[in-house]
Amino acid sequence: MSDSNPRFGKLRPELENSQAADALRKEAELSSQGWLNEVKRNKELGLEAAPSIEDRTISTFARGELPHFAGINTFLKMPYVEDVHKAGQYDVAVFGIPLDTGTTYRPGTRFGPQGIRKISALYGTYYFEMGVDLREQMTMCDLGDVFVIPANIEKAFDQISRAVSHVFASGAFPIMLGGDHSIGYPCVRGIAPHVNGNIGIIHVDRHVDTQEKDMDERMHTTPWFHATNIDNAPPKNLVQFGIGGWQVPRPGVKISRERGTTIMTITDIMEMGLDKALDIAIEVASEGTEAVYLSFDIDSVDAGFVPGTGWPEPGGLLPREALHIVNRVARETNLCAMELVEVSPPYDVAETTALLATRVIVDTLAALVDAGKLPRSTPTWLKPEPATEPWAL
Length: 393
Ligand SMILES: [Mn+2]
Fold this sequence. Notes:
- This protein is an alpha/beta fold.
- The chain has helices at about 20-30, 35-45, 110-120, 135, 155-170, 185-190, 225, 250-260, 265-270, 275-285, 320-330, 350-370; strands spanning about 90-95, 125, 130-135, 140-145, 175-180, 200-205, 240-245, 260-265, 290-295, 335-340.
- It has a single domain (about 75-370), classed as Ureohydrolase domain (Arginase, Chain A, 3-Layer(aba) Sandwich), CATH 3.40.800.10.
- The model has no long low-confidence stretch (mean pLDDT about 95).
- The structure holds manganese (II) ion (MN).
- Manganese (II) ion binds near residues 297 and 342.
C-alpha cells in the first residue's frame, strides 16, 4: 500500500498493528513463480484457450487448481504421484488409508480420503492470516491410497505400517488421511523404527482409545494401548487432549490410569485456558523425545460441526480451537507426521466434516512453513538406515 497514491486508503491507526494489516503486507512479499509454473504446465498439457478468452492463463482442459469445481481431485489438487518411489522428492506426501474395519458404530470412514480430497478442491494454496502460500513455499504430492485388506484388520495393519514406513523413510513429511482410528497403531509402528530416540504422541480426541481389545479384536478403540507397547513410544509421552463425555469406555480408562498417559478433558482445557493446556500437552509429548506424532480425530470437535464421523459426541472443541491447537503443535514440537482420522462421508452433512478435516491439515502445513520447518532438510530424528519391518513375522 502506498501513501503517495490518493486512491489507496490508509489503515485506521488502531488496526495498523493488527493481524489483517500484517497479512496485507505479507502478501506483497510472496512469490508467484509456483503459480506461473502451474499456468505454463496447464497450457502445455491442456491446450491454449479459445480465442474469445481474454485471460490467457486459462487452458482449454482444466488442469491444476482452477476451476475449483472441475478436475480429478487429489488433496488440494496437488500432483498425483503414482510412483511411490518418488515420495522423497516432495516436502510433504499425502496419502489415504481407507480402512473402516475397525469401526464399532458408524462405518464409512473408508470413504474418508475421497471425501477429504473432494472438498479440499474448495481451497487454494494461499492462507491469508498467515501470509503463507503452500504452492510457492513448499512442494506436496498425493500418493493415492494404501491397499488395505478390509476383511482382515491385522493384514491391513501390516500394509499400513509398510506404507507409512516407506514414506517416512523417504524424508517427506507424511500426512495420512483415515480411515478409522485403528490406523493410529500401524502408523506409529511404521514410523517408530526410523526415529533416533523416543517418539511422543499428541492424540486429540473425545475418546481415550487405550483399551487392549474391543469385541475380541484390535479396533479403533485400541490404537494407543498397542502403540505405547512399542519400545520407543512410551506412555509417559502420550497426551490425550479434549477427552470426555459418555463414550469413553471404562477398560480404556483403566489402561490410561495404569500406564500413566496424560489425559486432559475439555473441562480441564476450559478451566485453565486453551493455551495453558497446550503448554502442558506440548511438554508431555516433547519431554525426552526426538519427534512428535499428531493423531487428530475429527470427532474431538463438537458433534454439531462434524456430523460425518463414527462416534459423534457433543461438547467437544470448537473448530477455531482445533485450528489453534494444530497451529501451536506445528510450531512448538518436532512434529514428524500426522494422521487425520474418522471422517465418514456417508454421514457428512454438506461436507462440513471433511471441510474441517482439510483445514486442520492445511493449517498444520501453513504453520510449519511459517515457522521455517517446511521445506526441511533431512530430519534430525531420522535414522540413516534403510526401512526395516521389525513387526513383520
Ligand atoms: Mn474419537
